Amino acid sequence: LLASDKLGMFSIPLPVTGLLLAGLVITILIGGIKRVAEFSSKIVPFMFGIYMSAICWILFSNIEKIPDLVTLIVQSAFSPYQLATGTLVGGLASALRWGTFKGIHSNEAALGTQTIPNSMSIGDPVQQGVLAMASTYAAGIVAILSGFAALISNTWQDPHLGLGINMVAATFEIYFASAGFAIVLICALLFGVGTALGNSYNGGHCFEYLTKNRYSTLYFILSAVIIFIGAISDVSIFWGWSDVVLALVAAPHACALVLISYKKSRVQAAEQVENELLQTS
Questions:
Q1: Alpha carbon distances (Å) from 179 to 147, 182, 184, 233, 253
Q2: Nearest 5°: CA angle at 154, between 152 and 157?
Q3: pLDDT of residue 161
Q4: In Å, how far are 19, 54, 80, 259 from 32, measured between CA atoms?
Q5: pLDDT for res 83
Q6: pLDDT(18) > 70
Q7: Residue in 202, 165, 209 with CA at minimum distance from that of residue 184
Q8: Could you give the CA distance from residue 254 to residue 260 in angstroms, rounded to a whole number?
Q9: What is the mean pLDDT of residues 163-188?
């Protein structure tokens, strides 16, 4: 059975899932940054630890296959056959699109959203910046190692699994039997709750900034409604729309970074000229 089919065996109605998730997220959000931090500090290390332990077990059990997998990845990316048939452009474009947008989904790199929770810390801002960058690289490492595990188990060649949770669940079940599905289920649940909570928190601060700290109750209501609708709707619709939204978020953020860099260089140039004049005088 696919992971989606096994989840269906629990017979939990989607509206119930949506209500529970919306209620949990809003309850934590109302508690502010301290409650969000307390919740995240508990689930993130646990989720990362249990998932990475399972992945590393699979890889170390098949460590002799790693060189062949690296060769397969390189050959698949730069195959002479693809160059000759003219499919290289389409293949690379699809890979870049998939890697860019799905990578951003997991680590939110270049979106500017990481700065919101990190800015709430009273600690060293340099350390917070390092922590934000480390989380981005950690998400990339998880994705790479998950890909290696799928290549080792050959679950990526099953057209019925797709490139999602079904493939990961099938990989884990090969090595851990029923416990493998339980690991994927727990990690996916915690990741889903953490993602909904983090995005809702970031969106709340943006909403308060635009409304001058007004209508907070309205934002909580809208967040709960959106989470509920997302839980009962077809996920493919949101995957498509999220790619568009991420592009709309990344574009102004990139422009702002360029503008800030330009202004900073102008200020530094002016300060240098001023220092030179003071020295000559």
A1: 20, 5, 9, 29, 42
A2: 145
A3: 75
A4: 21, 33, 55, 32
A5: 46
A6: yes
A7: 165
A8: 10
A9: 83
Global model pTM greater than 0.85: no
Residue type for position 210: L
pLDDT higher than threshold 50 for residue 14: yes
The one-letter amino acid code at 95 reads A
Smallest Cα–Cα separation from 197: which of 254, 263, 280, 116? 116
If one counts every other C-beta atom within 10 angstroms of the C-beta of residue 228, the result is 19
Q: 32 — alpha (psi -120 to 50), left (phi > 0) or beta?
A: left
Q: Using alpha carbons, select from 155, 184, 178 the residue that is nearest to residue 50.
A: 184
Q: Is the pLDDT of residue 135 over 60?
A: yes
Q: What are the tens digits of pLDDT across the range 51-89?
A: 889 999 999 988 888 888 888 878 776 665 444 444 444
Unique residue bearing structure tokens 């416990």 = 179
**Total residue length of the chain:** 281
Evaluated on CA atoms 149, 146, 7, 156, the torsion sign reads negative
Place of tokens 């119930």: 16
pLDDT for the residue numbered 78:
66
- Taking only the tens place, the pLDDT of each residue in 240-277 is 777 777 778 878 888 888 898 888 888 888 888 888 78
Tokens 């007004």 belong to 214
**Look-up: residue for tokens 């493919």?**
236
Q: Which stretches within the chain are classed as H helix?
A: 3-8, 14-30, 32-61, 66-77, 80-85, 88-107, 115-119, 125-153, 165-176, 178-210, 216-232, 235-280
